[in-house]
Amino acid sequence: MPLQIYNTLTRRKEEFVPGTPGYVGIYVCGPTVYGDPHLGHARGPITYDVLRRWLRRQGLRVRFVSNITDVGHLVDDADEGEDKIARRAKLEQLEPMEVAEKYTWSYFDELAALNVLRPDIAPRATGHILEQQALTQELIAKGHAYEANGSVYFSVNSWPQYGKLSGRTPEDEEAGARVEVREEKRDPRDFALWKRANPEHLMRWPSPWGVGFPGWHIECSAMSLKYLGEGFDLHAGGIDLQFPHHEAEIAQAEAAGHAFARYWMHHNHVLLNGQKMAKSTGNLVLLSQLRGKHEPMYVRFYLLQAHYRSVLDFTDEGLEAAKNGYLRLLNAYREVHHRLQAAPSGHHAGLEAALDILERDFETALNDDLNTPQAIAALFAFVTELNRALAERPGRESLARAERVFTELGEGVLGLFPARVLEHQLGGELLEGLVQMLLSVREEARQNRNFKLSDAIRDRLIELGVQVEDTREGPKWKVGA
Ligand SMILES: Nc1ncnc2c1ncn2[C@@H]1O[C@H](COP(=O)(O)OP(=O)(O)OP(=O)(O)O)[C@@H](O)[C@H]1O
Ligand SMILES: [Zn+2]
Q: Is 220 annotated as a binding residue?
């Protein structure tokens, strides 16, 4: 069965067919960069990273675009209030651009530690002011936007399709609209494309409507169309963005006459104590905190063990369990690698059959709306069969295939075994072997009453920071005091 994904636009699973054979364009809404990234911020990037790797494995060329919001996102997510970045700049006594730069890098650094591939293009909103103004002008020219006091608003009333993504009706909106509405809006549902800047507003640009700054939603319509073109394949983001952000993105693009994304994916939230993890509420676990305590691959594995469309309530115990599961897979991978070094030529029918099943089940799982928990379950089932086969000393050809499958599916698609982890493990093994070898030479020297040599070995190890303790079970060592 070919790849099916759940398309929020049609509310059902659909076969994913790229608009241009062989090529896929993906746009993912990135963060507003005014704070250190939390665990919730990693879920989308890891989900769409697996999708990207999976599509690449089918031989498709993927252009992956994910933006950085560095202007225009106001504190209350609506059209009033301070800019989130400008507010942080005041608090930290930095330039708004310094804030954006600082948190853009902390975001990318954390994602790199999680083995998330960098986007092909990571456009910043402030670098695309002209494109946003041009789209705003197209909307005014077509009668879907109007200027009022130096701001420009999208006229929701002029676009009956508004609501098609979220399924919200105008009645829902009227009822939900905030009471105090800016008088310059003709309809409470209208949203800003361009905002007049008050004198104290730091981030400001000239425009045909006076000095101001872009609204939050317009950046994504403008930048996705610029880099991926009309009717691009897939747009993704967190479920909280479905309304109003994505609804507005669609309206802006389509009302201006541009075909927009054909598939929409939304990942569900990571929760903490039952509430959405969010910067604005401070209900969060920072990725940097987790990195201080755990190997980042445990975190990646933890997130992939849940399906992206279900909520995930974070707990330390859950992460601990994920660590054990991850190590089970890693140890199996290492064991295969280790056995391969000295195995004689030969095939093992049981192992080959288990590999056939793994490849089939893994593919079925990912093609079913990126079912990563099921793909991981296929890996676990394989490891059980592998351990059984290993007791029968399988030959080189079968072991080599097992290693290749681990590399291609475990690392290539799920991104769970970067070279860093394997080298660390292999480096650790080598170190253990070398120190043990020195300690046994020292033991032998002692038995031969060659104390000069045994003391010299101990002293040299101490100089290198290796502490040796003689216990009843033999010498033990550790690094550090
Ligand atoms: N708890 C979460 N779980 C999953 N995805 C999240 C979570 N929080 C944010 N995201 C996603 O991360 C991306 C960046 O969002 P954003 O910068 O608005 O984060 P935020 O922490 O929710 O900020 P704020 O609290 O200011 O709204 C969006 O795609 C958003 O849906
Ligand atoms: Zn967006």
A: yes
Q: Does domain 317-422 have CATH number 3.40.50?
A: no
Q: Which residue has the tokens 């170190």?
A: 431
Closest Cα to atom 13 of ligand 1: 31
Q: Is the ipTM of this complex over 0.95?
A: yes
The number of the ligand nearest the C-alpha atom of 238 reads 1
| Domain map (residue ranges) of the chain | 4-141+217-289, 317-422, 430-479
CATH class name, domain 4-141+217-289: alpha beta
Q: Which atom of ligand 1 is nearest the CA belonging to 38?
A: 21
Does ligand 1 come within 6 angstroms of the Cβ of 266?
A: no
Which residues share a beta bridge with 62?
24
The string of pLDDT tens digits covering residues 385-417 is 999 999 999 999 999 999 999 999 999 999 999
What the block records as the tokens of 288 is 């940097």
In this prediction the pTM is 0.89
Long-range contacts of 357-364 (CB under 8 A, 24+ apart): 357/381, 357/382, 357/385, 358/382, 358/405, 358/409, 359/405, 359/409, 362/409, 362/413, 364/1
